[in-house]
Design a protein that fits this description.
Layout lengths: L2 H4 L17 H21 L8 E7 L8 E7 L37 H21 L10 H28 L1 H13 L21 H22 L5 H39 L7 H6 L5 H16 L8 H8 L21 E8 L2 E8 L4 H27 L23 E2 L5 E2 L1 H11 L3 H10 L30 E2 L3
Antiparallel strand pairs: 1-2, 1-7, 3-4, 5-6
Helix pairs in contact: 2-4, 2-5, 3-4, 3-5, 4-5, 4-7, 6-7, 6-9, 6-11, 7-11
The structure holds benzoyl coenzyme A (BYC).
The site of benzoyl coenzyme A has 25 residues, from helix 3, helix 6 and helix 10.
């Protein structure tokens, strides 16, 4: 593979590895969109830190082994680029009714609307998350964490660019309109909200941010993996490179929650508190008690499950049949990749009871992806449990039932406890605060969110990381805060 495919052209205003200089029309369209993007970033991006120098990685290549360069950057000057994984000329459509055809380099006319919708939904989540997290810099527990937040933010910005490139290049005038709308909608706005539920929720504190990057970015991973299977090759190549960036976001979430847990358990031991349910005594130590961490987890997991859509979905079947959106790791699955006659077990509400029902595999694709997601989440939760176990504290975190706190799909009209018991409205109303963060829990967590901006120091509720970013020493100044 030649270096020119892997490396990024930084000589143009919009860094890219898709040869934009010889694609004048698209370059012009993207240059036309650029000022609006910068206005959006300045208005809706990290509040109060736009002038600060942040030690960020920037992609300089799409080579999996060495694509990033680290340096101090002011975020509005970050070089958001259009980067696609290299093209494989021999690639085929690998599933659905067009299986075996050459992968498409242009949008198939009959699937234009469907494909545009998938690209727009994916694109909409990226700026939404930046909006949700924009106020968190002010309460960062360390410069290390602040830098990680900003890294996640600029890369979500780049993921928006990735989708906007597809819209501008392949969808003509309506693609341009959609690209403008991506800058118009706002997370949580009453009149013009973001498209998917979880992206209109608040991210009020750093524990929420870590849970979001663990659970919601992991939905991103599953969805991007599925879109990376697409027969529409530019979408596949775009998503493949996005996935390499996504890994760091989930790392931030997993280690962030892990370090919170570590600190709580260490402080409990130090104070001689054995019972994790002694919430008031534990909180008095200035750390977040494990039952509250469980509640935050219940909330973010259930919000993220909603992002998979309905368990049984003709949309999902159509996306698959058309060859636009595959299954998680489609090529590792051994079957006919058409799913014309197979079935898949789906958990449904039947006569008021949760029951496994075999559904046609084609319409059960959202359920299947969600199952893979749950499995992936469970592994991370087990790693957190290992941390707790090592400290000797007796407590286990558990993913709640998939019926718990749902707004989309089979369980949207019932109330279920985290254990999966269906309860009536009155029982739900009186016990809900045991399962989900209450206002008082939120106030307590907020009270801990005091910024710590001395290099090498960490707020009292969170442990230091084991290693620095880019192997930097513990007291490295990850953000030079502008006065
Ligand atoms: N909220 O057949 P259904 C990420 C709508 S995260 C609101 O059940 P379908 C990231 C649906 O649009 C990954 N509406 O579901 C993470 C449809 O509307 P229409 C983002 C919802 O279509 C962190 C109707 O209900 N990427 O990257 O099979 C930070 C019936 O739909 C919701 C993608 O999601 C909801 N939760 O599946 C930054 C990939 N769920 O058509 C970034 C692209 C469903 O009747 N999207 N609806 O008007 C898709 O693959 C699918 O559209 C969905 C929904 C999985 C989202």
């Amino acid at each position: 593979m030649s270096a020119s495919i892997l490396n990024v052209d930084y000589s143009t205003k919009i860094p890219n590895n898709v040869n934009l200089t010889s694609d004048r029309q698209v370059l012009k369209a993207l240059e036309g969109w650029h000022p609006g993007y910068l206005d959006w970033w300045n208005d809706m991006g990290p509040e109060g830190f736009q002038e600060s120098l942040v030690y960020l990685r920037t992609a300089i290549s799409v080579d999996p082994k060495g694509w990033a360069k680290f340096d101090y950057v002011r975020m509005p000057e970050y070089r958001w680029g259009v980067l696609l994984a290299p093209q494989d000329e021999t690639r085929l459509v690998n599933f659905g009714q067009h299986m075996g055809e050459k992968a498409w380099q242009e949008v198939p006319g009959e699937y234009r609307a469907m494909l545009r919708r998938l690209v727009v939904i994916q694109g909409d989540t990226e700026p939404a998350s930046v909006e949700q997290q924009r106020h968190l810099g002010k309460t960062a527990p360390s410069l290390y964490d602040m830098r990680n937040l900003f890294q996640v933010n600029v890369e979500e910005g780049r993921h928006l660019w990735a989708m906007v490139y597809l819209l501008q290049k392949y969808f003509g005038r309506d693609g341009r309109e959609e690209a403008d709308d991506l800058l118009r909608r706002r997370s949580g706005d009453e009149d013009s909200p973001r498209m998917l539920g979880a992206f209109n929720e608040a991210t009020p504190d750093w524990l929420s941010f870590f849970m979001f990057t663990f659970f919601t970015d992991r939905d991103g991973k599953m969805q991007l993996e599925s879109l990376a299977q697409s027969g529409f090759d530019p979408l596949s190549r775009t998503c493949r490179f996005m996935l390499t960036e996504e890994a760091h976001h989930m790392f931030v979430g997993e280690t962030g929650v892990g370090r919170t847990i570590q600190r709580t358990c260490d402080e409990m031991k130090e104070a001689g508190i054995a019972d994790p349910k002694e919430i008031e005594r534990i909180r008095a130590l200035g750390v977040i008690d494990l039952p509250t961490i469980q509640k935050k987890m219940n909330l973010h997991y259930s919000l993220s499950l909603d992002l998979f859509g309905s368990e049984v979905s003709t949309n999902a079947a159509n996306f698959y049949n058309a060859g636009l959106k595959g299954r998680f790791q489609e090529m590792k699955i051994e079957d006919d990749h058409r799913l014309t006659s197979s079935t898949y077990p789906v958990l449904k509400m039947v006569d008021g009871a949760m029951t496994m029902v075999d559904e046609p595999a084609l319409t059960a694709l959202n359920m299947r992806l969600r199952d893979a997601y749950t499995e992936d989440c469970a592994k991370g939760v087990e790693r957190w449990n290992k941390l707790i176990e090592k400290t000797g504290v007796q407590f286990r975190l558990e993913l709640p039932s998939v019926a718990f706190n749902r707004e989309i799909g089979e369980f949207k009209n019932v109330h279920a406890t985290p254990k999966g018991t269906i309860v009536d409205n009155a029982a739900w109303a009186s016990t809900k605060d045991q399962y989900l963060p209450s206002l008082a829990d939120g106030d307590f967590i907020t009270s801990l969110m005091k910024p710590e901006s001395e290099p090498g120091r960490f707020a009292g509720w969170i442990a230091a990381p084991k290693v620095g970013i880019d192997n930097k020493p513990g007291d490295f100044e990850y953000v030079k805060i502008a006065a």
